[in-house]
Each structure stands twice: as C-alpha cells, then as structure tokens.
Amino acid sequence: GTGNADGLLVRVQNCSSPAGECRACPPTAEDPSRIAFVHQGCGEPEPCYFPLTDDDVVLGPNSTADALGLADPRIVYHNGTYYMTYLAIDGTGATELQLATSPDPTGASHWTRLGSVFGSAKNATSGSILPSAEGKHVMLVSGAGDTRITAASSSDLH
Fold first, then answer.
1. Is 57 exposed, middle or buried (0-12, 13-18, 19+ CB in 10 A)?
2. Handedness of CA 101, 107, 110, 113 (dihedral sign)
3. How many of the other CB atoms lie within 10 Å of CB of 23?
4. Model pTM score
5. Does 144 or 101 have the greater pLDDT score?
6. DSSP H or E run through 15
7. Which residues, at least 6 apart from 41, have a Cβ–Cβ distance to it below 8 Å?
8. Whole-number Å distance between alpha carbons of 27 and 93
C-alpha cells in the first residue's frame, strides 16, 4: 500500500501565471507534463495538500511515445496492485492510452510501465478500469472527437 499516505495522483507541469489567474499551459518538449503524487497534509473538516517537489513525480516522459508528457491519470486498486491508465503525448501531440502498475503509488521507483493498452491506436482521451472479482475486467475508453464510450474486456488487467 501507500504506507498510510493519503493523496492524489495529478498531472503537473512547470508553468506560471500572474497571481489570481488560471492559465492553460500546453506541454512542450522543454517542459513536458508529468504525473505526481500529492500528499494530503491535514484532514478534517477539509483536506489540504502539501506543495509539490521533484520527489513527488512518479512518472515522466521516457520515450518518443510520451515526449510531450503524461496526462489524465486514472487509478484503481485490485488484489494488492494499483493499476493506472494515463495518456502519453507524443511529439506531434497525439495521445496514446498507456498502463502502469505499482504496489505503492507514492514513489517513482514503485511503478512498472506496461506500455500501450491498444497497440498503436492513437488519440484516446481516457480509459478507466473497472475490476471484477469474477475475473472479467472491463475498461471504459473514449477517443478524441468521439462522443461514444467503448468497453473493452480483459481477464488479466494487462
């Protein structure tokens, strides 16, 4: 598990904007987006989170398939393993749905990248795993410019 660490997996990118302004910050090769574990700092009645450091980054670009970064992490815990789907953004801006697993989502050394979920299929926008105790797991997937949600199944979550 997480060693009792509460938090969130989020997409992060080093960009700045004037105080009080929200700014869209598209990823670049010089500043790709990454996925980080943000530790929860307090509890009741409302949660708050510690500022991010480089040590909080759990996945970052490591190939041409994710040259512009990673985005949209979705995580599920099943039988002692965390499964995370995320988008890899290549140098052209095309996205590919990828999968990683971990016994502990809080650190980079714990994650194993399993690669593309659907081979060379591009432009997915999200994928969420729905594990099943009966062994037929389902993934809901959507694609860029498509309003439909497609279901895929797997017996081993890989």
1. middle
2. positive
3. 8
4. 0.82
5. 101
6. none
7. 47, 48, 49, 50
8. 9
Which token pair is 7? 């938090």
* Nearest one of 141, 84, 146, 152 to 115, comparing CA atoms: 84
In 3D space, the residue among 146, 100, 139, 101 whose CA is nearest the CA of residue 122 turns out to be 146
Buried b (16+ CB within 10 A) or exposed e, 122-148: bebebbebebeeeeebebebbbeeeee
The model's pLDDT over 12-50, given as tens digits with 9 standing for 90+, comes to 776 655 655 555 666 777 778 888 888 777 766 777 777
Cβ pair 59, 100 in contact under 8 A: yes
Cα 158 from Cα 147, distance rounded (Å): 25
Place of tokens 């081993």: 156
